[in-house]
Write a structure and sequence with these properties.
Keywords: Membrane, Transmembrane, Transmembrane helix. This protein has about 400 residues and is an all-alpha fold. About 70% of the residues lie in helices and about 0% in strands. It starts with 20 loop residues before the first helix and ends with a helix.
Length: about 400
Amino acid sequence: MSAISRPPTRRGPATPLERSPAPDLARGVMLLLIVLSNTGFYLWAAEHGPTGWHPVDGSAIDGAVQFAMITALDLRVYPMFAFLFGYGMMQLFRRQVAAGRTERSALVLLSKRHLCLIAIGALHAGLLMAGDIVGLYGLVGLALSWLFIRRTNRTLLIAAGAAVSLLLLLTALTVLDAVSGAATAATTPSTVYYAAGTADWGAAAVTRLTTWLFSTTLVGGFLGFTFHAAMLLGFWAARRRVLERPGAHLGLLRATAAIGIPIGLLGGLPVALAQVGVLDIAPNHLGDQGPWFMVQMATGLPAGLGYAALFGLLAHHLSERALRGTAATVVAAVGKRSLSCYLAHSLLFAPLLAAWGLGLGAHFGSASMALFAIGVWLVVAIGAYALERAHRKGPAEAVLRRAVYGPAA
């Protein structure tokens, strides 16, 4: 693929010609995977099993959808998001420094962006969805940018390795707890913590904010070693321009995809087999305090990295004509407006499905909910494509950029 000439770097946000296709394509598909993985939280009227995540009273088709989601999506998409988030952080930092800012000034700019993301995450959780990850990545990004973004590549890899080691240690301790009989089963479905089944919007908002603040943001921020490792590896990969110049890193990308994705699929397989009744696993080993949950989380990191590598390979092998085609343009338009599209998904999901809204989630199963999610993504993608053709940013990106860069952006 021929190199695209790029204009001189400037201090404001990236211009369209400064963007590479692979990260945007990856983000666009990633948002579809995220909206699919969030569907279980809105099945609030269904009967849930020991995992507390997926229903157990559905049809065979529902079971097949759950099997696919557990093996390929659950705890696998968010590490990919974290990697791409870290990649974008390093791109922004390096662009600002190249444009003449001091490293400290560029870090201050990043910090403003992360603080804005935390605020957006709080609003998102309070108004719509407790599982917001914008605030989590804002918090983790704020810490990691000051601690590591100016460090050497060697230090980044060592720090990522330390995060992986802590993740494996935590997994091992959870397994030992299970062997000793200390592991506990999930007794409350996740829909309760997400307040999808709460009819009163005010009470639901309190529950959502509590869940978001403590379970999602603070616990994820301090103990989310998967996110730490993925972002740090995103820093490292961005310095080497792995996704912008995939042709120069084909060996790395192929190895990451070929090794990471199968590890992720195999790591989710036991829980998926237990979900559909093929494998008999003790209930106290399946909840979010059990060993198999931790195995899912630990193997989710290589899966997320493998997915990101796969999109780098895809961008390399697609022709220039295909990258300019309608399908790729629509997906990339979603990726360019990932924050707006992520929030738009919740805006379409929560009021329609939650009990405090129209309550339609009571009438869906896993399969029908997955179809609904695909439909929502398509609607949002059409909106993103319309904005792309009009050369307009997403509304959330416009607000964020004005807050970070000022009116000149």
